[in-house]
Model the fold of this input.
Amino acid sequence: MRIHRSAAATGLVLSLISPATFAQDDAMKGAPAGEAMQAMPAPAKVESPSMGWTDAEKAAEQVAKGKAALEACQKAYQSAPGLTDKAKITVQMPDGMQTDTMEMSFGGGNDMRLTMGSLQVVSSGDTVYFVPDQPADKYIARKIEGNVNSTLAQMLPGFAVPAPGFTLRQPIAGRPVTDAFAMGAPAAIEVKGFRERDGAQEVLLAGQGAEGLVRLDPKTSFVTMYRMVITPEGLPEEIKIGFNVALEPKAGALEKPITFDGGKRTAVKGVEELFDAGDMGEPEEPEVKVKVGDVAPLAELVTLDGKKVDLASYKGKVVVVDFWATWCGPCRKGLPGLQKFADEMKGNDKVVVHPVNVWERTKGDDLVKAVGDFWTKQGFTMQVLLDTEAKFIGQYGFQGIPACIVIGSDGKLVSTHIGYDPKMGDTLKAEVMKALGAGK
Done:
């Protein structure tokens, strides 16, 4: 399964694109192997929400005002007899900008509806329903335990809604009000400041690897906008994801009660049944220009110490090339397996393994240092090559990384892989051994 920017909002969890998705951690447990991060050459700079805040606005008495403002905010969301909200969600990622919209309706008790595209989460009576865009013939139904939020957290590990109204109205017991704005931050976030500006209340939030700003309407205490900037855990500090959410909350009784009709879909109990093997169909073919059996494009690349390596010089050998970047979570997750595979191939002079770095923000000496420091820190011994202008990867037409190719001793493409796969080492070993046999 590839993680497209648009698909990130409608995968196993209702999350536009969380750092957990970006870093490929446990929030994606249960998802099929083969996740890939869509990539563009230069991660964009994301401005910090704390810029422009004075020491006076971050003083202890202002922090207390900020906490009080958020407590009043949560009470406003919980006390409204009915509530509708529209969210325009813009996410700034290393591969560019993404914008999505979400609509929310809250009735009495646990009744609610969240809609993002064709994906829906509906709660009516004592049951919550998760209705994904795919597969189109199933939905998950679960009896509510506690409230809708806590039930969804059990149904969908890593569940997060990129709009605070849901968590403010349906808080999970024991969690602070700031949880509504966390967006998957690596650690808990806290109030760090408060100010009144342009007719609105603003609350500054911060925690390890995260900074945020919440803007409140002083008349209603509803959230009209919030920003959160996060550095995904385990990635370089310069890699940040920025969330900007504009909201239109309105209190008032709903015109129609919230009900659910599953139509022709079948109810299942959990994610495992929702995405069973029969639903996956044929493996998705990577969108590449070069097909298996075609003559594989080659290139002259450089090592970290500036030496040139012409891949054409490996004629008669099987060559494994893995495209990666320091900021790419799935790449970082897959490289140790590639190193293990390379170690197993050390005794075979007919096999060459080269990780090829692409799509970094830095250039020149800064690039060499960034990649070299990362390589040394990880303890990798494979010879990494640099595709500084992304011309080599461009010949294959990959739109995401990690991407891996195997080139046979005859110079033809043996296989193409895109995305992280925990069993990639075994797959490569089998493909290389087959290619070596075919070359005899």
Q: What stands out?
A: Residues 91 and 243 are 5 Å apart (CA to CA). The domain at 300-438 is CATH 3.40.30.10 (Glutaredoxin). The longest helix spans residues 60-79. The longest strand covers residues 83-93.
